[in-house]
Every structure is written in C-alpha cells, then in structure tokens.
Amino acid sequence: xxxxxxxxxxxxxxxxxxxxxxxxxxxxxxxxxxxxxxxxxxxxxxxxxxxxxxxxxxxxxxxxxxxxxxxxxxxxxxxxxxxxxxxxxxxxxxxxxx
Length: 98
Description:
The mean pLDDT is 88. By secondary structure, the chain is α+β, with helices and mostly antiparallel strands. It is 36% helix and 22% strand. The longest helix has 16 residues. The termini are close together. It has a three-stranded antiparallel beta sheet with strand order 1-3-2.
C-alpha cells in the first residue's frame, strides 16, 4: 500500500457475508446476474469482522463501517419515496496510517 500517503482516505463498499432474508437473496441474485453479464461478477463476500482485520493488517484505520441499518438511519429515514438500503452491503471509510 505505497500509493497512499498517511491520512489519505478511502471509501468503498462490499457485500457482507451475513444472514439474508428471502427477498434479499432474490434481489442479490438478480443483481449478481446483471453484473456478471456486464463482465464484473461478484467473486467474494466478507464477514464484517474479518474485513476489519484485513484492512488493519494492511495499514488502514477504520473510520466508519456502516450497515444497511446505519445507512437507513443516517441517510434514508426522512425520505418520502420509500427508498431504503435493503441489501447487506457495508459502506466503509478507511484512513491510511502507515
């Protein structure tokens, strides 16, 4: 990780390897087919605690690790159109420390 100066921030999302509802499984199956057809298949899922370990091992400090419930409370709760983050994706903000 020599491309980022200390203090640089990285924001990313990943698919959490967490329990899913039937509706989430169906939705992710449809999205997965679409991304695969576009040449970008989903090849991994992460357990949230393991993801945190991996980024720490690589010289990053975790600043935020938001779940769909966190995102709903923070960004979607006051929406009047019914849109909400319904899949178990995690939105992560990291800071380079080394």
